[in-house]
Design a protein that fits this description.
33% of the residues are buried. The protein is built from eleven helices and 14 strands. 35% of the residues lie in helices and 31% in strands. Strand 9 and strand 10 form a beta hairpin. Strands 6-7-8-3-9-10 form a six-stranded mixed beta sheet, with helices on both faces. Strands 2-1-4-5 form a four-stranded antiparallel beta sheet. Helix 5 packs parallel to helix 6.
């Protein structure tokens, strides 16, 4: 049995510089990125479009070469064939021959891994059931929705029964139902013992799924760690208080305790900076015998972290210019 802390992916000071344009201008897509993915976890590689996520994953998969730095899979260099055989990969914009059916498509990829006969057919049936596509086993891919294509693409990434599944923007372009289907599938992969690394710019999905995340902006790693640590889990940022039948005088008393106060008819919506102001605000409400409708703490999120980091990066760029 494998140690849950076994290191599956290691990236050390990875950089990639492209030459673009007629004069060969140097553009740094990835700048000194280091991270690790442990066995059995769901790891999110997050950032806005163009941040360097796909470039990093392409280097990890051996599709392009790094300008500097190293990377390894299962303790072996990224070019090692034995290590790559343990990996399943779904790129951001895969091309599928759309006149194939689901079964034919998976059979083709199974042959690439040397799977044949009844072993392959059994594996195909298992994967179609895993991704919820049994009903479409004989349907041509050109008739699939985007969500269905993503699911059959993940089945393709699983055809070799990999230990590590790498998904590049698996929820991009999906509607809410499609995103939920892919989220549920990623959780099922973890439950089956797989390690999952995926990139995304959809922070809410990552917050729901990930054990740990790394956040990249303009090619640089700006945050890395357990989700609960990064978003200050359990720490209240603000508290929303909704009150009915509060007198004008009491509203004036309440206002200094808030960062924002708005009136909606007889209803008052007040945003308190933290829980420290809650007791004082409640005293004001009790003294007027007003009606407390709701008291809702606002927790920090990955989106809050993302916005803070984005502002920091932008300020750094402005100062350097």
């Amino acid at each position: 049995m494998k140690n849950i802390c076994e290191q599956i992916v290691r990236i050390d000071h990875l950089s990639k510089v492209f030459r673009v344009g007629f004069w060969g201008r140097r553009v740094t897509a990835v700048d000194d990125v280091s991270l690790e993915v442990q066995q059995g976890e769901i790891y999110g590689f997050l950032g806005p479009n163009g941040a360097g996520k796909t470039t990093t994953i392409k280097m990890l998969m051996g599709l392009i070469y790094p300008s500097k730095g190293t990377a390894s899979l299962f303790g072996q260099p990224i070019g090692d064939q034995m290590a790559k055989a343990k990996v399943g990969f779904l790129p951001e914009s895969p091309y599928f021959y759309d006149y194939l059916t689901s079964r034919e498509f998976l059979r083709f990829y199974g042959h690439l891994f040397g799977l044949l006969g009844s072993t392959l057919e059994k594996r195909i049936d298992e994967l179609l059931e895993l991704v919820g596509m049994t009903h479409a086993r004989d349907l041509q891919l050109r008739k699939f929705s985007k969500g269905m294509l993503q699911r059959v693409g993940i089945a393709q990434a699983m055809i070799n029964d990999p230990e590590l599944v790498i998904l590049d923007e698996p929820m991009s372009g999906l509607d809410p139902i499609g995103r939920k289907e892919v989220r549920d599938l990623i959780l099922r992969l973890k439950e089956s013992g797989k390690t999952v690394m995926f990139s995304s710019h959809i922070l809410h999905d990552a917050e729901l799924l990930c054990d740990r995340v790394a956040m990249i902006m303009k090619g640089k790693l700006v945050a890395c760690g357990h989700v609960s640590e990064l978003i200050d889990h359990g720490t209240t940022q603000e508290v929303e208080m909704v009150v009915d039948r509060l007198s004008p005088e009491s509203i004036d008393t309440l206002r200094p305790l808030t960062v924002k106060l708005s009136l909606h008819g007889e209803r008052v919506v007040a945003i308190l900076a933290s829980q420290r102001q809650v007791d004082e605000a409640l005293e004001v409400i009790r003294s007027q015998r007003a009606k407390l409708v709701s008291l809702l703490p606002h927790k920090a999120s990955l989106e809050d972290l993302f916005i803070r980091q984005a502002k920091g990066v932008q300020q750094t760029v402005e100062v350097s210019v």
